[in-house]
Amino acid sequence: MAIKSKCVASDGKRVMTTEELKKWLKKFDTDKDGRISKEELRQAIRSTGGRFATFKSRRGLRSADVNQDGYIGEEELDNLVEFAQKYLGVRIIHF
């Protein structure tokens, strides 16, 4: 379930919108509770071929989980944009 984006920038990063990123992340919500757990985020990072998935998933959860409940809820997904650009090889474009 790697990130499938039609556009790839000259630096090799996949170009996508925030909505496309959210849709892709929701595919890893294996228990369908509407939230992304650390393990689900780790699986998402692994699917990109990313290294150090456990470390990055911890860091991503910490950066996005505003209410500190251990999950990234729908309202917190926007907080993952910066993380995704840094660690998932994604460039987010805004229309």
UniProtKB/TrEMBL annotation:
Residues 16-51 form the EF-hand domain. Keywords: Calcium. CDD domains: EFh (cd00051). Transmembrane segments: none annotated. The keyword Zinc does not apply. InterPro entries: EF-hand-dom_pair (IPR011992), EF_Hand_1_Ca_BS (IPR018247), EF_hand_dom (IPR002048). GO terms for molecular function: calcium ion binding. Pfam families: EF-hand_5 (PF13202). PROSITE patterns: EF_HAND_1, EF_HAND_2. This is Putative EF-hand domain pair protein.
